[in-house]
Each structure stands twice: as structure tokens, then as C-alpha cells.
């Protein structure tokens, strides 16, 4: 059996009871080493299989091999396992192999809503998630989605906004957004949400300092009603108050 | 002090430790009666203020009045408090009144990712949330967003997809989607996610029976790579496996 567990953004308190229980009930814990470290305090004497970034396929294959031996395996994702996480890969691999292993997907608090809670309430209206990583998605499709989401005045949450090797994707995205959204549209950045060194910045499309954004950041671009009030980013739901 | 608490989709196990702690630490619990009932077992002897649907403004104003007296108040939202929930309204009301009350927003597992976990892994690629309720949003903006999201081949999660008085919004949305997405695009429906009578249906844009969808449902429309395998809905992340 495989439990694919979304552990939430990082802080153990932001894990669900169900996620904790699934980890407690598993014999082997498989995950990216950074995420394993986040939950170390609750792993006690479990067998741990961890590896580095970009090794997702090997990691999931290994989890499946272990589960085939009859052990209960927990595959760890940060945030929600089904949002750019490990749930899809596990199910895809099982489907290719036509294996009939039991899989439980345990949802968690995803990075965008964790970041939003720190910023205020930026996600109170229709929004979208776009990953700016072009490792698995062609850049032209990413750009097309950025343009269409901007045209529709969606609030936009960027996952994987910037890293070494992708230093200019966010800047390029903002250029496209500015074709449709005003340059003073409110932008929220949260770094290391619910982890040590958590940091939030509220700025605008025009004033952003891109160098403040890194791989651990979520960037949320507001819609045309989003406003800044003190240190909060608020998107109105539309109530007449 | 006000804790705006996302309790997750319904099952107490899908609440975070932080949400439980915030409720435990609050003296008065304010919420829509259906959500209060979901968490009744953990409210023990708390003072409870609950009311019905469409009374969100009254409810939040009442929470603020109680908090002004110095009591610690928890305002309950299902799912994540910041996703079409109570977080925005509380912050907006405080901003209008220029009140300096401390507010903690406690995120939770939102309905879309809870539904996704039951369906398989439909949200593994870029997706958006669109509410089909036109109580607070003009129908032409909703329709514009549906068209643009379809053009961008986003996975689309519909909140508030269908209710009395809005019986044909989903059908109208699907007509628009079919201008851009193939009629055999996979569609997942989850009713009462993580509650009694939970039910899931995997169908297509063309084959859907709209009458199966109600107010408690989340409807997820796949992208052009989403497929059905047995009773699962899978959106590939893009790995070469």
C-alpha cells in the first residue's frame, strides 16, 4: 500500500490529522530530503528513503518497488500531494505497469493558500496556478496561459517562480501580464511560507524587485480589485459592505 | 482577537493541527450552521453563534462585535478560509471600520484539492478555480473567464457549480468550454467530499448528466492530456516515463 501524503507547507502544525496518521501507519517513508527534514520529528524509528531534486521518477519507482514487497509506504510531498506533487507520478507509473497496488492520496494545505493566509486574503476571487518551470512544460504554453489568465483578470499564483537557470521567467511573465493588468496591480511574495525565515513582501507589478524571489517563493498577482491595506493584500469577494 | 479558521472539507481528520488548536483556544465560535455541525464534536462547551446561508456579512459583523469585547473568536469556514471563504470579508470589514483587531488566518485543505485526491490526480498541471455563482460576480465576467481558461487548456475547478436558481450555469459553461476543449475531455465530479454520502463520478464534457451536480459538488474539467484509468482521473505532470 502507498500513502501519498501532502504534509502542508512545512510547519508540522499545518499538517492534517489524516496526514500524520498516514505517516504513523507507514513503515517506510520516501521523499525529497528537504521535505523529509521538515517532518523528521515525527518519523522516529521509521525506515527512510530520501534523495535529491529532479529525482522524482527514481523516488516514485523505488516507493513502488518497496510497496510491492508488502510494506506500507508513505511518499511525502510538500503542500498538497496532488498539486505539482507526487500523486500524479505514482498513479501514472502504476497505470503504465498495470499494477494493482492500493494507493491513498492524502491532501494537504497547498503552498498558494498557505501564502495567501500570510498575505491577507488575496485568493477570495477566481484564481489560477501557473508553474513557471519549463522543465516539463514548453515555455510557449506557459506564456500563453499567463496572457489568457491576465486577460481574464484572474488572480494568478506562480509556483516555481524563479531559480538558477530560470532567472528571467517571472520578469517575462510580468511583461505579458502588464499588457492586460495595470502596472500598479498588487503583488504578494511569500518566501519560505510556514518555515524558518518566513518572509512576506507586498509590492506591485511595476515596483517588484525580482531578485527577492527565489525557488521557495510563491508569487501572487492580484486582480483589478485587489488592494493593499497596511501590511495586508485583500481581494474583495464582491460583497456590498 | 479573531481566528479565521479553514476547517478543511468536512471530516475532522482533514483539519490541520493548527486549526484545531485555534478552535480550542477560542472562546466563541461563529459560523454557518452546516459547518458548525461538522465540527460539533470538538466544540464541547464553547459559546456558539451560528446562522444560515447568505448571512455572511451579519455573521462577520457579529464576530467583530464579540471580538471587540476582548473575547477570542473563531470564525469558521469550510475548506480554506481564504478561498471564497470568510477571511476576505473579515479583513474588508475591519479595513472599513479602521479597527485594529488582531486577526489570524488559518489555512485549510480547500475543496478542489480534497476532491482531486478522491478522483486521482487531476490537478497535476496548471489549473484555475472559477465560482459559477453570479450572486457576487456578473455572469459575463464568469463566462469570459471560462472561455479564456479553456483556451489556455487549464484544468478548471468549478466551485458552486449548480443550485436551485442556478440550474443552467454549468451547462452554459460546458457549452463555452466545448468551443476549445474536445467533447471527450475528462470531467470529475465529487459530491460531499469528506462528508457522509461522499460520491465521485468520472465522465466527459459530452456525457455529463448535469442533474447529478448540486451545491455540495466540485466539478473538475481536465486538460487535453487528462485521462481516465479505471476509476481514476489523471492529469500527467509531463514526466517521460
TrEMBL record, chains A, B:
Query: By its UniProt entry, which Gene3D superfamilies does this protein fall under?
Result: Cobalt-precorrin-4 Transmethylase, Domain 1, Methyltransferase, Cobalt-precorrin-4 Transmethylase, Domain 2
Upper lineage is: Bacteria, Bacillati, Bacillota, Clostridia, Peptostreptococcales
Top class in the EC scheme: transferase
Instruction: Give the metabolic or biological pathway.
Output: Cofactor biosynthesis; adenosylcobalamin biosynthesis
- Name its species: Acetoanaerobium sticklandii (strain ATCC 12662 / DSM 519 / JCM 1433 / CCUG 9281 / NCIMB 10654 / HF) (Clostridium sticklandii)
Q: Which CDD domains match?
A: Precorrin_3B_C17_MT (cd11646)
All copies of domain Tetrapyrrole methylase, residue ranges: 1-208
Q: What is this protein called?
A: Cobalt-precorrin-3B C(17)-methyltransferase (Cobalt-precorrin-3 methyltransferase) (Cobalt-precorrin-3 methylase)
Say yes or no: keyword Glycoprotein present: no
Q: Tell whether Transferase is among the UniProt keywords.
A: yes
GO function term, MF aspect, one: methyltransferase activity
EC no. given is 2.1.1.-
Q: Which GO terms describe its biological process?
A: cobalamin biosynthetic process; methylation
Q: Name one Pfam family in it.
A: TP_methylase
Q: Which InterPro entries does this chain map to?
A: 4pyrrol_Mease, 4pyrrol_Methylase_sf, 4pyrrole_Mease_sub1, 4pyrrole_Mease_sub2, Cbl_synth_CobJ/CibH_dom, Precorrin_MeTrfase
Q: Which UniProt keywords apply?
A: Cobalamin biosynthesis, Methyltransferase, S-adenosyl-L-methionine, Transferase
Amino acid at each position: 500500500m502507498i500513502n501519498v501524503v501532502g504534509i502542508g507547507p512545512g510547519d508540522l502544525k499545518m499538517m492534517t490529522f489524516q496526514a500524520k496518521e498516514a505517516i504513523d501507519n507507514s513503515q517506510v517513508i520516501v521523499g525529497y530530503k528537504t521535505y523529509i527534514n521538515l517532518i523528521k520529528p515525527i518519523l522516529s524509528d521509521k525506515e527512510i528513503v530520501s534523495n535529491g531534486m529532479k529525482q522524482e521518477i527514481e523516488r516514485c519507482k523505488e516507493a513502488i518497488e518497496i510497496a510491492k514487497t508488502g510494506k506500507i509506504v508513505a511518499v511525502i510531498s510538500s503542500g498538497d500531494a496532488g498539486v505539482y506533487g507526487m500523486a500524479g507520478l505514482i498513479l501514472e507509473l502504476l497505470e503504465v505497469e498495470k499494477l494493482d497496488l492500493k494507493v491513498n492520496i492524502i491532501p494537504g494545505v497547498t503552498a498558494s493558500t498557505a501564502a495567501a493566509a500570510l498575505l491577507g486574503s488575496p485568493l477570495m476571487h477566481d484564481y489560477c496556478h501557473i508553474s513557471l518551470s519549463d522543465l516539463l512544460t514548453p515555455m510557449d504554453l506557459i506564456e500563453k496561459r499567463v496572457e489568457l489568465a491576465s486577460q481574464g483578470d484572474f488572480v494568478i499564483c506562480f509556483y516555481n517562480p524563479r531559480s538558477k537557470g530560470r532567472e528571467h521567467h517571472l520578469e517575462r511573465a510580468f511583461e505579458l501580464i502588464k499588457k492586460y493588468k495595470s502596472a500598479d496591480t498588487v503583488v504578494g511574495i511569500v518566501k519560505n511560507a510556514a518555515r524558518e525565515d518566513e518572509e512576506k513582501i507586498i509590492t506591485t507589478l511595476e515596483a517588484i524587485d525580482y531578485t527577492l524571489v527565489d525557488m521557495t517563493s510563491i508569487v501572487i498577482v492580484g486582480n483589478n480589485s485587489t488592494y493593499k491595506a497596511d501590511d495586508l493584500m485583500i481581494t474583495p469577494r464582491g460583497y456590498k459592505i
